[in-house]
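Dear Dr. L.,

I hope this message finds you well. Following up on our conversation about the binding site, I have prepared a predicted three-dimensional model of the protein together with S-adenosylmethionine. For your records, I am including the exact sequence and ligand specification that went into the calculation, followed by the structure tokens. Please feel free to forward this to your student if that is useful.
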Amino acid sequence: MTKSNEPVKKAISTLSNSPFESAVGYLKNDVPMWITYLWADSYIEGSRWYQEFRCHRDGPIPAGSSSDLKTAQFEFFKDQGLSQTDAMLDIGCGCLFAGESFIDYLNPENYYGMDISPSLIKAGKQRLGESTMREKKPSLFVNADLKFDEFYADKKFDYINCQSVWTHMPRELIQECLDNIGSVMHDESVFYPTFTEQPIDRPIETQPYNYAYYPEELIRMAEDAGLSATQLDVEYPNEWASVLEITLSE
Ligand SMILES: C[S@@+](CC[C@H](N)C(=O)[O-])C[C@H]1O[C@@H](n2cnc3c(N)ncnc32)[C@H](O)[C@@H]1O
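The resulting structure of the complex is given below.
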């Protein structure tokens, strides 16, 4: 911006930090969010309505997604040993923003994605296009719970991704996820859920859409479900979040 535009730039930056902008943000995001969650019969139904609403309003890109986050997910799994012959389950795959990289890399029929939002799954199929859908044959499901029974009983995954999903889940749903995930794991499977780590000076549940947890609490919940969990010492998926590595207990 040239020097003559400085007053305009200053006015815009003042406005964007103003109570006016906060009020617009509140009306645009918080009000519909509260309405959907309070109206819905269950938390999952509230999440589905909210995702559907956002997908229709803003298009099928999850807020906060960036190409860095997409690359970070793929690189992280490659670092953990993901190979083309592995079978992967992607919980909360959304519009396949990151799923696309996994589908491209994995052998045909090895990627399974699930999400509560029909619109995001539809957008994911469109993102891939017919030829990739035909060639790579990913299995994409719309789920209504976290029982994983959409998958035939003996399906086991080598790697399970769950990126930025527990960040939007209350404790009961995380426990449901942990209680059932073992049914799609074998002895060598690894499950990597990311979560927002609870800072000491904030309330644990900030609003219906965002949750933060102490790692010790999640590890204990995994152990209660008969799993082993450790927090990885890596900066993944970004500097605000953390990741657990979960396996079946020996
Ligand atoms: C922040 S987005 C992350 C999307 C994707 N993992 C990524 O990194 O691009 C959270 C996703 O989780 C999905 N989701 C929320 N609750 C879910 C549930 N109980 N089961 C499956 N997906 C869920 C949402 O619909 C949304 O697509």
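In brief: The two ends are 61 Å apart (CA to CA).

With kind regards,
A. P.
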